[in-house]
């Protein structure tokens, strides 16, 4: 019998053979969009071109009208000097926005996919004419009756074509956005990207996002084999990398992205600010979170002075010798402002209307924004909420409450007080033949402020701040961790009282899953892989 000792087989850990759980909240595609919108707000952008717009999700968001205009010029509403130097709040007309609105006036989208562009055309079209909301109509009356009112004209154009083709309408556009596009470009088109966008078009701002290959290590343990990584091998055979999507021609590491951005910015007269978005909810047990950064690399290019930039871009493009087909304009939508926009009535007329509205509602105090979202008040103000503020300040029977501990200096808490209160307050006692149920307001929701039930009784509030059941309600696939999304349990709880004694499942229970959204219409060629792309043809 041999004395040879056989070596024990090497133990294979589960994390070495499988991908790790990596989830994002909000979903990664929403984090990219939030980043873009934040930059547009901060930079007061009004004209946007989305290159590789796909189905137009960003364009549709930008088509939504701002709830009110930017502050009026002094000739409309003269600046009011402060009467009390100790007042911490600025005098009107500034409404003191914590989150500035985006006031887009021109939006353009470009893509090569006809099927995707069909959705972009539909999603950016003006809304249908308003339904009759008169008393007695069977149409639903929204709580905020001026939602959708537009105070500024908006021009939208949707184009079909490749980015390697110069469109003269894009030259000197204020801002170009390119989200999850550059990694899809074929090798012959990629060299035209910077010369066309940064050279010929030379926007004031250029916003770029692309998947970070560095972050991909987060999907596996450091000791995992290549086979543990699910994905798509580099189709160009230039590397042994595994990509997040089958159509990606490359995925840059964080360092490669940085090098390309600095080289392109220097060559075309831009300054660039580089960062990343999309951190995993789970904490990496190997402590790699800071090292790997976010799942998406992002960059802001800001134009500097440079001579002959446009001419250089056109010459570079001609030298590439690419075959070009002119862009085709698929649709032009014109969203017209309300006829009363920038045509306010007198302060006295507005103040009287506010008083009448508060008396109609039997309210001695109302938030400024609750009053604003009454259509007739917003129309009288011509779209300027500062006009409403000044009208309240000017009326002897109204008082603007914008200071004090409960206001905390935030304009969302500003309130209007009706001097003397309400002469005939609400009488909630039931009349003969009625019950208390008959007096429940039609728009009442459990858990809202003012409900008689305690906060503990309605601990699972269903107000908007707590509604996370539809966090992917736009119909966009984003499989970055989608398999492991933990839907909130008991958001409504079980519905009791059925004959069998078994509780019926309500919203938020495990009986309702994300798969129930399978019938939400969207383009059939969705490419929503780990990077959350929406269009196969985004180049």
From TrEMBL:
Which processes are annotated in GO (biological process)?
RNA methylation; siRNA processing
The protein's matches in InterPro entries, at most eight in alphabetical order, are given as: Hen1, SAM-dependent_MTases_sf
Q: What cofactors does the UniProt entry give for this protein? A: Mg(2+)
Location of the region described as Disordered in the Swiss-Prot/TrEMBL record: 437-539
Q: What is its EC number?
A: 2.1.1.386
Q: Where is the composition biased (Acidic residues)?
A: 453-466, 473-483
* Reaction catalysed by this enzyme: small RNA 3'-end nucleotide + S-adenosyl-L-methionine = small RNA 3'-end 2'-O-methylnucleotide + S-adenosyl-L-homocysteine + H(+)
Give the Polar residues compositional bias ranges: 511-528
Query: Which residues does UniProt assign to the signal peptide?
Result: none
| Similarity comment: family membership | Belongs to the methyltransferase superfamily. HEN1 family.
What name is this protein filed under?
A: Small RNA 2'-O-methyltransferase
Q: Which organism is it from?
A: Lyophyllum shimeji (Hon-shimeji)
């Amino acid at each position: 019998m041999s004395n040879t000792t056989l070596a024990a087989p090497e133990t294979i850990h589960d994390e070495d053979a499988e991908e790790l759980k990596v989830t994002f909240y909000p979903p990664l595609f929403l984090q990219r969009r939030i980043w873009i919108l934040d930059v547009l707000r901060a930079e007061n952008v009004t004209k946007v071109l989305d290159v590789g717009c796909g189905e137009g999700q960003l364009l549709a968001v930008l088509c939504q009208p701002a709830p009110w205009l930017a502050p009026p010029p002094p000739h409309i509403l003269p600046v009011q000097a402060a009467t009390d130097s100790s007042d911490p709040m600025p005098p009107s007309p500034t409404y003191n926005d914590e989150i500035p609105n985006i006031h887009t006036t021109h939006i353009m989208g470009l893509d090569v996919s006809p099927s995707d562009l069909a959705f972009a055309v539909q999603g950016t079209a003006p809304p249908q004419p308003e339904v009759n909301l008169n008393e007695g109509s069977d149409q639903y009356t929204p709580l905020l009756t001026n939602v959708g009112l537009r105070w500024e004209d908006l021009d939208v154009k949707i184009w079909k074509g490749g980015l390697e083709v110069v469109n003269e309408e894009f030259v000197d556009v204020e801002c170009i956005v390119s989200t999850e596009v550059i990694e899809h470009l074929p090798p012959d088109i990629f060299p035209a990207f910077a010369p066309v966008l940064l050279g010929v078009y030379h926007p004031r701002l250029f916003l770029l996002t692309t998947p970070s290959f560095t972050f991909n290590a987060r999907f596996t343990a450091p000791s995992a084999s290549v086979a543990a990584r699910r994905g798509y091998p580099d189709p160009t055979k230039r590397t042994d990398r595994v990509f997040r999507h089958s159509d990606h021609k490359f995925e840059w590491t964080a360092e490669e992205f940085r090098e390309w951005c600095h080289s392109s910015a220097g060559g075309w007269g831009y300054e660039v600010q580089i960062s990343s978005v999309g951190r995993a909810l789970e904490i990496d047990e190997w402590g790699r979170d800071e090292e790997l950064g976010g799942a998406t690399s992002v960059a802001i290019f800001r134009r500097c002075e440079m001579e002959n930039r446009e001419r250089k871009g056109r010459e570079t493009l001609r030298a590439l010798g690419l075959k070009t087909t002119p862009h085709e304009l698929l649709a032009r939508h014109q969203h017209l402002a309300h006829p009363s926009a920038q045509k306010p009535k007198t302060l006295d007329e507005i103040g009287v209307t506010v008083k009448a509205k508060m008396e109609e509602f039997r309210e001695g105090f109302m938030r400024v924004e609750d009053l604003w979202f009454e259509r007739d008040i917003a129309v009288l103000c011509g779209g300027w909420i500062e006009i409403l503020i000044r009208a309240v300040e000017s009326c002897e029977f109204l008082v603007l409450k914008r200071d004090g501990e409960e206001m905390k200096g935030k304009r969302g808490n500003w309130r209007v007080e009706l001097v003397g209160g309400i002469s005939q307050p609400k009488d909630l006692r039931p009349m003969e033949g009625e019950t208390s149920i008959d007096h429940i307001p039609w728009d009442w929701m459990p858990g809202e402020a003012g409900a008689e039930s305690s906060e503990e009784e309605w601990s699972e509030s269903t107000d908007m701040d707590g509604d996370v059941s539809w966090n992917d309600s736009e119909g966009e696939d984003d499989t970055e961790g989608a398999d492991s999304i933990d839907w909130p349990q008991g958001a409504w709880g079980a519905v009791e009282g059925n004959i069998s004694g078994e509780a019926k499942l309500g919203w938020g229970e495990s009986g309702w899953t994300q798969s129930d959204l399978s019938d939400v219409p969207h383009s059939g060629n969705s490419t929503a892989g780990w990077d959350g792309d929406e269009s196969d043809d985004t180049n």
